[in-house]
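If your schedule permits, I should be very grateful for your opinion on a structural question. Thank you for your consideration; the sequence and its tokens are set out here:

===
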Amino acid sequence: MSGRPNKRQRSSDHTVVRIWERELGQLPNRSFSNRFSASEHLLNRLGLHKKLKEHTGCVNTVSFNADGDILVSGSDDRQVILWDWDTATVKLSFDSGHCDNIFQAKFMPFSDDRSIVTSSADGQVPTLSLFFFFA
């Protein structure tokens, strides 16, 4: 060892830091996207954590609630599914009412996980109330 510091650090050493900076709003989305969209190192670090099998079509969106214990997913099968993340089981599954593929599903902020907004290729963006399911 020469005792000299390594002048050239690998960018992959800072992947987690860059993700954290993006989440804090300190790294612009475009900069993040350009840096990591083709990052082989980042892809190699990803792994399969859970396999959730219920949709019959391609899943286009997944999103956690604020607590991180419920996952909502939307699919080409036009179903919206709420998953218990800890047990990987379905809490609720229902037809979204969309006429086309679901591309986005999110929990509405400050709704105590009782409202979801979805968007679809049919151009509709409904807010779905889950009050009666979890009352």
Q: What stands out?
A: Residues 5-9 have pLDDT under 50 and may be disordered. The beta strands are 59-64, 70-75, 79-84, 89-95, 102-107, 115-120, 127-129. The CA atoms of residues 119 and 125 lie 5 Å apart. DSSP finds three helices and seven strands in the chain.
